[in-house]
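Checklist before submission:
- one chain only
- standard amino acids only
- sequence pasted in full

Submission:
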Amino acid sequence: MSNREKMRIDTVLFKSLEFRNYLGHKVTITEIPVLVSENCACFMVNARLEMFVNEIYRKKEYKASYSFKEYLLSVLRWPEYKELFADELQHNA
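Returned file contents:
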């Protein structure tokens, strides 16, 4: 497998997370990017995910599904977001 294919696979893979909030409702977070641990953005994504989960866990209004990708779009500066999802933005025209 070439480096280009490996990099493309790393940026395309997403995972999801399911948990119950403090009221007991099932909540799903989708579109969590899978990054290799050597990636410099890995720590930032993990920290943002932890903050997002804590925010959702404490919300009083119930929503069954959230998109982590949309959350990142709202909290990151555009160059950081563009770097994270560069391949997807190019092929989404």
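Reviewer check: The chain has a mean pLDDT of 84.
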